Amino acid sequence: MAGKVAAKLAALGITLPTPAAPIANYVAYNVTGNLVVISGQIPLQDRKIVFTGKVGAGVSIETAQQAARLCFVNLAAQLQAAVGDLDRVTKVVRLGGFIAAGPEFTQHAQVMNGASDLAVAIFGDVGRHARTTIGVPSLPGDATVEVEGMFEFA
């Protein structure tokens, strides 16, 4: 029988992908005590970066929100690999968002809401989290967004 989080994912039409392997000298996640820290995830789908470019310079806020949402889907896939069952998650502690944009762009928080809103949609109140969102000049593979996370589990 599917757990509560798996049922929520299904209701949202989300199937978690196979977690992406690291592309450099790092691990996808680290578990310490009852915390999982997950390395930054980019908007990969079927092993391809599907959202590229800079927000405000050819990429709309709405498109970037979709990219952030996909990043959170990839975080959830890594989280499931780390803890086995997403129902074990007791808190989305923190998300960090990196938004590729030019210096004139100032709506980074709106972009990151794509990930934050999905965290709450999937996990409910457990999904409410602290957050940092910053603009950067570029990301790996010209990705539009990258999202990292810290999660507590039982």
Automatic annotation (TrEMBL):
Residues 7-143 form the Endoribonuclease L-PSP/chorismate mutase-like domain. InterPro entries: Endoribo_LPSP/chorism_mut-like (IPR013813), RutC-like_sf (IPR035959). It comes from the Bacteria. Keywords: Signal. Residues 1-20 form the signal peptide. This is RidA family protein. The lineage of its organism: Bacteria, Pseudomonadati, Pseudomonadota, Alphaproteobacteria, Acetobacterales.
